[in-house]
Design goal:
The protein has 241 residues and is of the alpha/beta class. The chain folds into two domains: 67 residues, Ribosomal Protein L25, Chain P (Beta Barrel); 158 residues, 3-Layer(aba) Sandwich (Alpha/beta knot), CATH 3.40.1280.10. It contains six helices and twelve strands. It has a six-stranded mixed sheet. A six-stranded parallel sheet has the order 9-8-7-11-10-12, sandwiched between helices. Helix 2 crosses helix 3 and helix 2 packs parallel to helix 6. The radius of gyration is 20 Å and the shape is elongated.
Length: 241
């Protein structure tokens, strides 16, 4: 945890917060803070500031936040909309956290031919579970702006009815191992990036994605896990070196 995130429910006044949950244990056992210490906190979807620990015990914490003139803005978001074929549950949690850490603010999970229907039943897709993993990703990055996550259980209606509007005003790309074009680097425009399952999209799905405005691109002949492909692709796209 590089940033302790506070929700509106934690605030008992404009400059004071109190909570009793997993964050208390983290402060006590991982960060080893004590009464009187100063830590960095952020308001979810708000600013970042320093906070003085006024009270700390095994079950609760009370913080005094720095006044508003000393607040700072969170780091800038990546100009990307990320669309991912729903991965197996074992990977889903890591992908949500990683996307939030990297600065993705619009994340769509979609169905595809190679996505097992049972994946949509995982409790990790419940709103509370999604939010928790987003918060963990933000805490790692020192960010406060909560990403939006959308679920689309039917491939064709999403690609035909929603994807063209999402792609509009951006460069649409679909990561596809068989593509003859490499992934661009150092882009300075908005990107809509579509990533398929580990087996890739089937030809029909690629055709529909291309029709919706996405250009197939490849990282090369090696097939990467989705959780690996996401940071590699985003690093390549937005690299300035």
């Amino acid at each position: 945890m590089n940033l302790l995130l506070l929700s509106a429910d934690d605030l008992i006044s404009p400059n004071c917060a109190r909570f009793s949950d997993r964050r208390v244990q983290h402060l006590n056992t991982v960060l080893n803070v004590k009464h009187g210490d100063t830590i960095k906190v952020g308001i979810i979807n708000g600013a970042i500031c320093a906070a003085h620990i006024r009270h700390l015990d095994a079950t609760s914490v009370e913080l005094e936040l720095a006044p508003e003139p000393k607040h700072k803005s969170p780091p800038p978001a990546l100009p990307v909309t990320l669309i991912v074929a729903l991965p197996r549950p074992k990977m889903l949690k890591r992908i949500i956290q990683t996307s939030a850490t990297l600065g993705v603010k619009r994340l769509h999970f979609i169905h595809s031919y190679r996505v097992e229907k049972s994946y949509w039943q995982t409790p990790l897709l419940r709103p509370d579970a999604v939010r928790q993993n987003l918060l963990l990703g933000l805490e790692q990055a020192g960010d406060t702006m909560l990403p939006e996550v959308s679920l689309h259980k039917r491939f064709k209606p999403f690609v035909e009815d929603q994807l063209p509007e999402i792609v509009f005003g951006s460069q649409g790309l679909v990561a596809h191992p068989a593509a003859g074009t490499g992934v661009p680097s150092g882009v300075d425009e908005k990107i809509t990036l579509v990533i398929g399952p580990e087996g890739g999209f089937i030809p029909y799905e690629i055709e529909k994605l291309v029709a919706a405005g996405c250009t197939p691109v490849s990282l090369g002949p090696r097939i990467l896990r989705v959780e690996t492909a996401i940071p590699v692709l985003l690093s390549r796209l937005f690299s300035t070196g």
